[in-house]
Amino acid sequence: MRAWNNLGIAHDRLGNRADAISAFKEAIRAKRDDALGYYNLGTAYLKTAWGAPSEDAISNLEQAVKLNPNYSDAWNNLGEAYLKEKPSGDAINAFRKVIKLNHFRLKAKEFNII
To answer: Considering the entire predicted model, what is its pTM?
Structure first.
């Protein structure tokens, strides 16, 4: 549901990460097949410095790209989450997917993948 996602984005922009995460979880409960909710939740976890954000970010971003394989922003953030967790071929593959989907993506260029 778009309203829950918008509420989460508002909380995130105000620095209320925990409230943002709660709102994004509600968005997913309201519409389990919407990649946007998983993308937003994964991205919020990626921004956190507490707990195990990379693991939570990875699982949600993986679900986002599973639901929408052409979601280049989700692939990019998934690559960043993989790098944060542990640099591996998974990050390289995610960034290559970004390049394939959108060859102008700056983050992929920053890691000298192209």
So the answer is: 0.83
